[in-house]
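STRUCTURE REQUEST FORM
Protein name: GLPGLI family protein
Source organism: Flavobacterium jejuense
Requested output: structure tokens
Priority: standard
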Amino acid sequence: MKFLQTLFLFAPLLCLAQSVTIIEYDVQVGLLQRQGKLVVSSSYEYNYYFEVAKNENTNVEINETNNEKNINKVLGSKDEKRIQLYSKNRDTLYNVDYIDKENIVCYEIAKNISWEFSDETKVISNYTCNKATAFFRGRKYTAWFTTELPINQAPWKFNNLPGLVLQIHDDSTQFIWSVSKINFNLIIDSYSINRKLNKISLKEFITRSELENNKLSDQAMLKFTQRGAKIIKSEHIRGRELKFEWEE
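Status: completed
Returned output:
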């Protein structure tokens, strides 16, 4: 299983086989389709989640109207894995990500999300799910979670729900996670992520990432300007997280 060949940050290499549960999700990120995997084990210090690209082949989306080109950066246009590790003993979330071609580790304090619970239920993948809603970093999300499995986890950065999240989406439905498969009792070996990766805070990561995105947009704009096109430049639009704690 190649996607399990890089696992646990700061943890020693483990040679013994372990049993894990892997929850797979179909993920929509704007116009892009991704595949997410949530890996849960009682034997490890960390649970982790990652997404991989699916059918992504462009860095820039170009809308042409009346000979004017509107340049927008498209989210997630590379194939590298974005891995998130959840420490069971600390309140820290580690994100193994990249800026341009540099792989880095971005760390942040995991923010406990305040959910409002509803009596509404529905069945997803043969499990009865309860509804909860919350605001998280500028977006309102609706989550459907089940307590019929002994797992209290969710994809991406969602947390603090008393069950396994099988479906979640924001109000605009630009960002959607829908369970596609649950694999129980898989036996895998664990490996450690490269300890030499540069480690930076979430704030520094966001600052550097947005500078890089704006640079790519400027490069695309320059190319079309050199061809004599009239350009209207768009500011970089944030994705899942619109506003961070240090901006409040």
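Reviewer notes: The longest strand covers residues 175-188. Residues 1-16, 56-80 have pLDDT under 50 and may be disordered.
Form closed.
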